[in-house]
Amino acid sequence: MKPERIKPVIRLIVPLIIFMAISFKGMSNRILIPMDDSQKNHLKAYGISFWILKTFEMEMDWLLNYRGGSFMVNYTQQFASEMTVRGVSFEVISEGQAGQILNQISAPDVNMDAVKLQKAPKVAVYSPKSKLPWDDAVTLVLTYAEIPYDVIYDEEVLSTKLPEYDWLHLHHEDFTGQFGKFYQYKDFPWYREQKKEAEETANKFQFANVPQMKQAVAKKIAEFVSGGGYMFAMCNATDTFDITLAAEGIDIVDAMYDGTPADPTANSKLNYDNTFAFKDFKTIPYPYEIEFSDIDNQPDERGLLESNDFFSLFQFSAKWDPVPSMLTQNHKTLIKGFLGQTTAFKNRLIKPEVIILAENKPAKEARYIHSTHGKGFFTFYGGHDPEDYQHRVGEEPTDLNLHPNSAGYRLILNNILFPAAKKKKLKT
């Protein structure tokens, strides 16, 4: 080749070599998002992981039991910049270091595993459109973590909207149709608005009353889970969901809610075969007692104060029980308790096939449970707000800027990423 032709070729090749070297360097690195005590913002770390899955459809590794359940993904400058902006701690590691971590995790005598996260679930929150005098921990943490979600309610569930989603959260909700048993607040504007909205929807769908409509909604949600959906519920959405399923065709509410008195023999007719998690419970029909059944462990039964109210996460085999392992990833194993209209579940009333993920042993109560239903999964988490011990009606919502490392809120977000995991045969 003539010398005068070599120079233009070199001008083309040299930048190409440099570009390929830079690209190779970027491709050969990984980003490790630690989830141990070194993480500055655990909650936003979930949000950044969700963002990567949803926006770029790029696989990630969830490193179960490795440094608090860390995440690992291929390096890009865009990812690193976004983590910096959101205040999420991360480490850039080489491909060789990543391989060493994966080898360590794969050792048969180590209780760790790497799970592939593949596709971000489409998230819905079941919640009334009207403003209520209490917040919801899940919507608070989804908003803080910058995880997108849609709000749906009875009308959407009773139509054809629900199958569009992968993951459903049940807001602080009373599926028995007794409006939370807050009858003493019947003259408050928020109570009247909630009642009016429910009655209008019941009329639209030709139900005789709100309790009948709520039971139909619960059955639709049960069908969603049975068909392969993921359901997460907190506070009194947990026990009231099972109560209304067990009470199909039975009047368990007083006249102020449906126009007829409750069936005095209702408890002898409950069908526990219809329920997700609970068995052998009895409903509490008294309209002025803010309790739905004996599932919930009451303060006098618990014998606990805020100073000694803690619950412990169980340790599961990451290689053999990946689902409960994912749901219990945390940088803490002892988590401070918190109250709710439904705080905790009596162990003796939980079905044997349900996995207890966390419990308070002295109180003989479960705080966090999980199981399958048909082709799908459900998780129940007792209590109202993990960072507000006794949230009262009308109080200001929790500012999660003050709790970026909340171990209690992490359990909620474990459930958000769990549906993104690559499906494989499970032992549970």
Automatic annotation (TrEMBL):
The keyword Transmembrane helix applies. The chain crosses the membrane at residues 12-33. It comes from the Bacteria. Keywords: Membrane, Transmembrane, Transmembrane helix. This is Asparagine synthetase B. It comes from Dyadobacter linearis.
